[in-house]
Amino acid sequence: MVSAVYFCDGKGRPILSRRYRDDIPISAIDKFAPLLLQLEEESSVIPPCLSHDGIQYLFIQHNDLYVVALATSLATNVAQVFAFLHKLMEVLEEYLKSVEEESVRDNFIIIYELLDEMMDYGIPQITETKMLKQYITQKSFKLMKAVKKSKAAPRPPTEVTNSVSWRAPNIVHKKNEAFLDIVESINMLMNQQGQVLRSEIIGQIKVKSKLSGMPDLKLGINDKGIFSKYVEGDSDPVTTAVTEGKKKTNIELEDLKFHQCVRLSKFENEKIITFIPPDGAFELMNYRLSMPVKPLIWCDVNVQVHSQSRIEIHCRARAQIKKRSIANSVEILIPVPDDADTPSFKYTHGSVKWVPQKNAILWKIRSFTGGKEYSMSAQMGLPSINALDKPKVKRPVQIKFQIPYFTTSGIQVRYLKITEPKLLYKSYPWVRYITQSGDDYTIKLNN
Amino acid sequence: MSDQRIFARYKATEIRAELQNFDAKRSKVSATKRKVALRKIIANLKMGNYNEMVLLYPEMLKFWQVEDDLEVKRICHEYVRTLGAAKPQSAKEALGAVLGDLENKNEEVQIMSLRTLSAVTSLEYINEAFKAVGYVLARRGVPQNLLKTAILLLKYMDDLDHDRVSSTLDSLYDIFERQLASPTVQVAALHTIYAIHEKNTDLKPLRLELDVAMGLLDLLPQLNEWDKAMVLESLTTSAVPQTHSDVCAMIELVLPQLQHANTYVALNAFKFIAYLLNYAEHVNEGLIKRFSNSIVSLLNKPPELEFLVLRNIILLLLSRGASLLKLDVSFFFIEYNDPIYIKDTKLECLYLSADHETLPRILEELVQYATDIDIQMSRKAIRAIGNLAVKLNEEAAHDCVDALLDLLEFGVDYVVQEIISVFRNILRKHPKRFESIIGELVKHTESVQEPEAKNAMIWIITNYSYALPNYLEFFQVFSSNLLEETSDVQFSILTSSVKFFIRNPNYQTEKICIKALKQCTEEINNPDLRDRAFMYWRLLSLAQSPKSHLLSNDSMTKLIDGELPAIQLSTKLDPVILEELELNIGTIASIYLKPVSQVFRNTRTKRLLPSPILNPNKENLKVINDGSTNLNSGAFERVPEWETIGQSDDVSVASPRRTKTMMNDYDKPAEKVNQLKGKRKSSSAGPSTLSRKPSMLVRKLSMKKPF
């Protein structure tokens, strides 16, 4: 249970507050900024929970803001608090576009209203933007158009207490469409020899629904693929072990997480994904696979340091994907020492530049066809005087890319059935696949 | 209208003028401007400009009557709430208007009014609030939102007047026992009752009838995410299964929730099932797999949530070893972009999950971190390697030592400091094994600078002087500037110089010893140090005086230079505390690994309630599989033992000797090994079976702070 929520600026000073319970002194938040400062001086480690004078400060960082929840008891559920604060930021982003110090100050009234609705005596309530938008309208910050002295003031819809709390009943769209995005992010750590040290696929299925009424959706995923293996997995482990030697896939795929609209018990028993979607965009499910993947974009980086004179970098990049596929906006970030200067480059494709603020060379290739190999070489000067015992730079090469129409795991949507029992309209499901680099697609350099 | 002008301090008269100015005209524009003026009031209240704003009460009351715009209502209510908290006596005037809103047709306004009633802490308001809540609860067909607000309000009002609230509890029971209202209202009622029971130790712990609990679990699919989690939280410890089939049925109902995207739900489902397992006959291997998978995918969340999950993994590793979670160590490998507190926590996970199988991989990672550009990280990694050498057996220690020696060649200053510091512990754990490397270590005598490293180096030189022909030269590096050292190091130097002398009394050692004794007694103002020096001095003179037979040379050697007990590193916590922490998965307590009752006396300690099928001992929980996958008997064997046999041995060996040789307490006591450098939150000891050595427990309980 949260006693109060504060929005604080980058230094930890409060901008805006909402108190839900009276069990903490008003001055408690004033301790937050000094606490942060003190920790920063002591060490660089600032955990997201601090404790002072019996008051617990739980906070998340968002842009230039600290969003702080105060609580008094150690029995406070942190999972609840953090999940709520992140949800709050999600909702605010939809209302305010970007949530930062300035926009918070601009829209403090609407934030108060939202804080009032989303939490009651420290307990999270409705957190679905679509539902909130029905009665917390945006007029607060479009001041000039605002006032309508309507007698029929918007009121919380009764659905918030119903079982389908994420969808209002009377939604109408002219064209009934549902968009499905399957996004797989690859995290991979390789060493310079091309050995994959660790790899994982994080998949997300994002849905944007523009459907009228109360549609019931049923999602089918390729039966030859992972899902059937998963179903068989329980009864017949032998065949799955044989298929492509990926014995682990059926285990790892249990790692599914679903949006609250998916009927979990139905999935549990029949392995069918059925749901009534909220209106608009949301993430239907995510999954993780830690099957071995070979690098999609591989870089052979060779760094030679002639100390006190220059550094030479040779880099060959290869797209190890099907010939028909194309990797878009490939970015290869190669670290260089922070005292390097006077760069000179030779390259065949894309563009190369030196990014001094990151101490790195950035090689951008807009489109990279499968099977192709490009190379680049760079040379930079090093100062002739060496600072003594400076620790060596141990930053990895980071690679970013996007490959459309392609999933690494082989997941495919077989069907997306949309049924609306009352309206019986025609509907159009659209599916799109994309594979991209995750946060951590890196090559370790052993220097 | 720009925000800057809203967020500025205004005088009451200015705003009043603005409000009145436009009051007369009834155009749209004036309404807008009026609202801006009202917003200014709220902004001023938030800035704490109470004295000015309180003057506007009459205007606000006027608005209350005429306006029916919801936003104006909101502002009016906010005004009363804020001022009510700051100046309760002034709010009396508004009471009438607030009560008026309670009768309003609009549900939203009614809710607002209820909230305002509870927010002002004056007697009138509280009385009215109780009346209103009673009214709402008694009436049939109240809008569900209003009912829910009233129920949640009760929980809050319990702080104010417990007796009046407890009289309404029965009607709350009815709501979910007989399923009188919509699911979410039932959850609110359940949660309110649960929270009131938790807070008031005079009530018995909440215990629900089994069919009621089952009924609530059946509701799960119909609830929104927050409510789901709240049900699971409230039912942990209050739904007590009576037979094994109850356990199975409940787990069945909750299992799907492990796959919820919201960490709050997934973690609470985890907690609930973990709680049920205390009553289970056996645990299915499939379940462990699902547990592990569910936890792993929670790691792909924003860093704060990831941190929480990692802390809870630590908790589970401490309490159940690998028996409930089977996670590959690679999940704890540090990523380049992780925030530092995540890196820190992952390091701890790596340390805890290290065993003989995983050690090579973990060691490889740790060595990587040790050469990391970040100094702190590097130190922590070295510290972890050192602790692993102490935690694991001799063979593993050998690998760790090799890794450390490689790093030592790296030669960077802080790495050397850290490695020397950890070596003392390794040598204490495996005294004979690594004699050959002493020569390697003492090469760095000149470069140790930090007090801890110096202490360690002095200790190493002292204890392995037999292996070092020119140990006195090394020692003199330190002893020659005794006066400039920190008091820690001064203590070490003093003790070591006395030891050298009694081991090998000759001209040189005597000179060193006398010099140290003199400096400590005459030139240093630290009374402890002076007293210790005097004590040594008298012991020495007592032993050497021919008349006295009180103290022979032998017994003095034993006294001052006795053999040290081997150290043990134990990561286990007291089972009683673990039981409580396991029931608190996901809470702040689980982050600090401290029991709740330690900080808040009044809160109830969560305990497992008795049931005929409660497992008296978690060790007996069998892991079985459903026949499809290969039997994993290792999981059962690896269940940790609760009795820390190693420790108690240690105590019994150490204590008798200690009573005799109090004086040679110069060495860090064994339990300090577990303590990482730097400050930590210390805590008083909880109820403990190991009360003989409370300090050890306390240290293990406290969260490891950065070193």
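qc> Chain B touches chain A through 119 residues (CB under 8 Å).
qc> done
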